[in-house]
Amino acid sequence: MSGSHAHALHYHGHSPVHHLPAETKLVGLLVFVLSVVSTPPTAIWAFCGYALILMIALGLSEVPARFFITRMAIDLPFVLFALLIPFVGVEPKIAIGPFAISEPGLLSAWNILVKATLGAGASVMLAATTEVPDLLRGLQRLKVPVVLVAIASFMIRYLDVVAGEFRRTRVAMAARGHNPRTVFDAKPLAVASGALFIRSYERGERVHQAMLARGYDGTWPSSGNERIAAKTWIVGLTPALFAVIVAIAARLL
Amino acid sequence: MHMPDGYINLATSAGAAVVAAGGVATSLRNSGKELAERQVPLAGLTAAYVFAVQMLNFPVAAGTSGHLLGGALAAILLGPTLGALVVTVVVVMQALLFADGGVSALGLNVLNMALVTPVVGWLVFRWLMKVLPARTSSAVVSSMVAAAVSVVASATAFVIEYSLGGQGGVAVGTVLQAMVGVHALIGLGEGLITALTVGTVLAVRPDLVKGAADLPLVTDRTAPSRATTVTFVVGGLVAALVLVFVLAPIASSAPDGLEKVALDTGFSEAATDHPVGGPLADYGVSGVDSERAGTVLAGTIGVAATFAIGLAIATLLRRRRAT
Known about the structure:
The complex is a heterodimer of chains A (253) and B (323).
Chain A: H1 16-19, H2 22-38, H3 44-61, H4 65-71, H5 76-88, E1 93-96, E2 99-102, H6 103-129, H7 132-141, H8 146-175, H9 186-213, H10 230-252
Antiparallel strand pairs in A: 1-2
Helix pairs in contact in A: 2-6, 2-7, 2-10, 3-6, 3-10, 5-6, 7-8, 8-9
Chain B: H1 10-54, E1 57-61, E2 64-67, H2 71-78, H3 80-98, H4 106-131, H5 136-165, H6 172-204, H7 226-252, H8 256-267, H9 270-273, H10 277-289, H11 291-322
Antiparallel strand pairs in B: 1-2
Helix pairs in contact in B: 1-3, 1-4, 2-3, 2-4, 2-5, 2-6, 3-4, 4-5, 5-6, 5-11, 7-11, 8-10
């Protein structure tokens, strides 16, 4: 099973971005996104700056642009939603062709569109260049409670198993003529979902027993307390630093 | 439902993050030693389950579909604290590994989807279980109502956040109507699937449903007294209708968004340019006049529909038990 260390958005590679410790990338992502969100929507040049930072990071990471762009498709529903806003927005209005477009709505749509896209791009960067165990270790080093990290690691470990089971069930149902059209056809799906819960829970019980058999005593082994060199932090946070400079400049100018 | 970056301003996002962190910390403390020792793999597997079930899209109405939030379901199955922790892990991992939901909006998303839904779902579920007779079918009906209410509560939380720190452009009233309207429909689907899922688990391993832990495991097959059932049905309907009549004026006290826009621009200009604008304009005027009545009517229809679905579930369950 390859699912334990690779996931849908991951792009295997050995670039400098891949080799950065996950916690620097996590902090960098957070700082970058906060800088983007704090920028007034009228400062268009600032968003070009953020996009440039992202593109340089993308170039360094050796993740193909095509891979990157297709993975950002998760943004699409919000793009569509944002495009609706100018049509239902508040006064004042400007007339474009036959439509009355709300001016604040237009600004709001641009604001959401550009920030959501930059945020999604930065998140895809993290996901594409970080393997799951590294990410979990990074979260742990950032003092995220051990229990939460442990739950997350079990979730990731068994996600493909559980989702695969559900997928097979649905294929089997479709093969037997189940074709849901309205909400009232949901019953077989829900029964399958109930069965899936019981299976997942019982699998959890077995996993727990197997852990007990191997000496699990309730304490979670805390791994990776090794410190990261200050230099690595500085390198890892460079893109975020540039983003902060852009954000401050956008505020002042 | 996963909010991206840029929807809500920084101050509100930060506030939500603090509230969410507090909620998660409280859940962690409450789940305490038991979780650390025994339930970590169980919680992890349940998180994987919630993640998988969230991929379950169900058709809502013509053309649109919703996906399960699963917060109320997790709370009913695992209890509110563990349920909240499990959904929190799901939401955080969706943001970090799948870029689903913005990182700056993580606090908002955890609050709306991982804390509001389990807590509201659990409270509604437990309250209904106290009111209803202690039977399996009550747990199923309660799950349905709890899940539906939890989805609407989550949408309401979004509207509150939008009114506090939205980037503007759309009137809060418009957002309220759109969000609560759509999520009332999604809530019906969520309620139906949650109820049937809980029903299935109750039928096979009732010990796994934390919310129904105090139900007698050996179901009492003697028929319930007619009077209690009738009292409950009538009482529930009356309560729902009272809610409609109380809530409807509140809901329609802020309809200035869409209607006003339609009035101001839609047909005042369009009526001369586009003959198509005519009937719409008529509709708008008569709509504004009888708006309150219309909302109450819609609410009443909603209650009737919910009641019919609940009745259908109960009948189905009874038929299954009879065979």
